[in-house]
Amino acid sequence: MAADILLFIALALALGFKHSYDADHLVAVSNLLTRSKSLRKTSLMSVSWAAGHMITASVITVILFVFRETLLSAFLAHVEFLVAVMLVVIGVLGLLIEFGWFHRHAHEGTEHAHAHLHLFPRFGERRAMFSIGVVHGLASNDELLVLFLASLSVTSLLGLLGGVGVFSVGVVLGMIVFGAGVSYPILRWGSTRVRRAVNVGAAVISIAYATYLFLGFEGINLFPVVPG
């Protein structure tokens, strides 16, 4: 019994870490993480994303537990479209930030024009990451289905939600590792020109991947898991 519980916890943690590296996750969060000013801020943004993800992942788990697959397939069929729309919005906003959104300001009596990253900071990077995580949590059905099948011996919904909690810890760890990997080189060696190129590249990739999803292709899973 104890061995089964430990195996379930290990599976949940591994699936969570793996899930954080789904292509749509990396594409979306990269647009904000590349603008981070410190590793501490990157970590907080990653945790915010994971918190939003955990909320909707928990909802999906309840649906799986209560309704099994009766209405799950019809609902989740539209999730990829929602993710694609979000990626387009993120990409377009990223490009507007880099190539537009100029305002005139007066400083010490002198008026001049300069660029501001208005939109994400105005909404708040952490709140933006939380919102992105909420949408991404809806698309976490593959790993949650594996977790659900592996937990058939867990008879209570509370026990299964505990597994989702461990799953979410894995998601947090995976995203923090990715965030540090993205942010550190830019913070350490990136000039203004390099940062701009990275930001534009992340925005273009976001739009391109959304187009890929709109065309009906399945999302790219870097570490595919086949339930069964």
Overall mean confidence score, pLDDT: 78
SSE string, helices as H and strands as E: HHHHHEEHHHHH
Rg for CA atoms: 19 Å
Q: How many beta-strand segments?
A: 2
Please indicate the percent range of residues in DSSP E strands (runs of 2 or more). 5-15%
Strand order, biggest sheet?
1-2
Please render the helix and strand layout as text:
Blueprint: H1 2-19, H2 23-33, H3 39-67, H4 72-76, H5 79-99, E1 102-107, E2 110-115, H6 119-123, H7 125-138, H8 141-150, H9 157-189, H10 192-214
Antiparallel strand pairs: 1-2
Please give a structural write-up.
The chain is globular. Strand 1 and strand 2 (110-115) form a beta hairpin. The protein has one domain (25-103, 119-214). The chain has helices spanning 2-19, 23-33, 39-67, 72-76, 79-99, 119-123, 125-138, 141-150, 157-189, 192-214; strands at residues 102-107, 110-115. It has a two-stranded antiparallel ribbon. The chain contains 10 helices and 2 strands. Helix 1 runs parallel beside helix 9. It is mostly helical. The longest helix is centred in the C-terminal third of the chain and has 33 residues, at 157-189.
